[in-house]
UniProtKB/TrEMBL annotation:
One of its GO terms (molecular function) is aromatic-L-amino-acid decarboxylase activity. This is Pyridoxal-dependent decarboxylase. Keywords: Lyase, Pyridoxal phosphate. Coiled coil: none annotated. Its cofactor is pyridoxal 5'-phosphate.
Length: 482
């Protein structure tokens, strides 16, 4: 590969990014979060570049990063009602915060040979990843089918002598509701078990809504029995990705996810998180943006996003084919449909109109839904979103619910997820019309038929098939190929 000029590289990058969903403007309703504050965005980018080459591995080499982390954790502690003596760390994102919470709970109980954690079925998939990585068995407890909230009585009944962690969400990503943390944490406390509250998506917005909504379900460290909380800054803190915080009620609770190794002739490795070398850019950018926006600024942003969410929720209730999966407690919406249409086609129709909404597949007795994360930047465009949602629903009803072919469902269902080889994957892709020239993977422009197929399959088979597709997507190709 020969050297390429900066201008050529930037031109190519711009061309490649033309197919990405927009990160600003409030029309991408998952994955990215937009404050709508141009000055804050510019500051974040500038500080990200300024500190991108710093390394958070050694706080004595870069004491500025240590100071910024301490200040961010302290700010979060005030928001989350942390007691004196609390401690925290900055991580690369919500998943790493969850992984560390599970790891800390497991390693604090060396007396438990086969550790387990009790999860509502709506707990984020990051907990399943932690279960896989750390061999902590997930014990899944069904949520209330109407409210979509965790069932504290059933969760308490699931706790036994091998339980090392109990989990609640504030709010759940899938449905946007706060679990009954008070009762769940009390059951964990009475059993001598840690209780983690996953507030990755709500932790930087819910505290600013308490003044307006005093009946908000308690979920912070003010709740007796809550031992740790995760909160992402790159979501409703509106900072550049990726940065999250994990807070523990005490430093003792944090210590079991620290790592040290002097068992080699190099430097003694000391880590507070999963990563060793880590760029200080996201941490520094978060520190700068949080200080720039300030608490009053975040309060205004939270109110703006919440009011937009309530407005969209009200509009959904006025569209006959649509319904809310649950009453939203924060800034997330989950939408279901009646038998005249489906969420997968609506997602495609919205994308054609410039909106990215995230389809969520059915799970157990919980139906497929359309997920919307509403940012502050979405607020001015709520009338346009509502009009396009109505139009998308009308178009979906006109075409009728999408249904995969019976032959394709049968072919996919016959596959053993444990023995899914490359030839079988190639055959399924060909039947699904997802094979391009030379046998390459070709994703369809409209994803509804593929999502409908996945929705008809068991979760284990979905996972295997999607991993196979991901494997194909990420295989190397010639540099510069389009």
């Amino acid at each position: 590969m020969s050297s390429t000029s900066a201008d050529e590289i930037l031109t190519r990058l711009t061309a490649m990014r033309a197919h990405d969903v927009p990160t600003h403007g409030g029309r991408t309703l998952a994955y990215v979060y937009d404050s709508g504050l141009a000055e804050a965005d510019a500051l974040g980018r500038e500080v990200l570049a300024l500190c991108g080459s710093t390394n958070g591995l050694d706080p004595t080499a870069f004491p500025s990063l240590l100071t910024m982390e301490q200040e961010l954790v302290a700010t979060a502690g005030r928001l989350l009602d942390a007691p004196s003596g609390f401690a925290g760390v900055a991580t690369s994102g919500g998943t790493e915060s969850v992984l560390l919470a599970v790891l800390a709970a497991r390693d604090a109980r060396p007396d438990v040979a086969a550790p387990r954690m009790v999860l509502p079925t709506t707990a984020h998939a990051a907990f399943h990843k932690a279960a896989h990585y750390f061999r902590v068995e997930p014990v899944l407890v069904d949520v209330d089918p109407e409210t979509k909230r965790a069932d504290p009585v059933a969760m308490a009944a699931a706790i036994d002598d091998s339980t090392v962690l109990v989990v609640a969400s504030a709010p759940s990503y899938a449905h946007g509701v706060i679990d009954p943390v008070t009762a769940i944490a009390a059951a964990a406390r009475d059993a001598g078990v840690r209780c983690h509250v996953d507030a990755c998506i709500g932790g930087w917005v819910l505290p600013f809504l308490r003044e307006d909504e005093p009946d908000q379900e308690p979920w912070t460290f003010a709740v007796d029995g809550v031992t740790s909380i995760s909160v992402d800054l790159h979501k409703y803190g509106y900072t550049p990705k990726g940065i999250s915080l994990l807070l523990h009620r005490s430093a003792d609770l944090r210590r079991s996810h620290f790592f040290a190794s002097a068992g080699w002739p190099g430097y003694t490795m000391l880590n507070t998180t999963m990563q060793s070398t880590k760029s200080g850019g996201p941490l520094a950018a978060a520190w700068a943006v949080v200080r720039h926006i300030g608490m009053d600024g975040y309060r205004a942003l939270a109110r703006r996003a919440r009011q937009a969410t309530i407005a969209v929720a009200a509009a959904v209730s006025d569209i006959p084919a649509l319904a809310l999966a649950a009453r939203p407690d924060a800034t997330l919406l989950a939408i279901t449909t009646d038998e005249t249409c489906d969420v997968f086609t609506i997602a495609d129709e919205l994308l054609a109109r410039g909106w990215y909404a995230q389809p969520q597949l059915a799970y157990g007795d919980l139906p497929a839904t359309l997920h919307l994360s509403i940012s502050a930047a979405t607020a001015p465009s709520v009338p346009a979103l509502v009009a396009d949602l109505q139009a998308a629903t009308d178009a979906a009803a006109l075409s009728g619910p999408v249904a995969p072919s019976e032959d394709l469902v049968a072919a996919a269902s016959s596959v053993d997820p444990a023995h899914l080889d490359d030839a079988t994957v190639a055959g399924l892709l060909a039947v699904a019309g997802m094979t391009g020239s030379g046998g390459s993977l070709a994703l369809p422009e409209r994803m509804a038929p593929l999502n409908a197929l996945l929705d008809a399959l068991p979760a284990e088979l979905r996972e295997a098939l999607l991993l196979a597709v991901l494997d194909r997507l990420t295989r190397p190709r010639p540099i510069g190929a389009h």
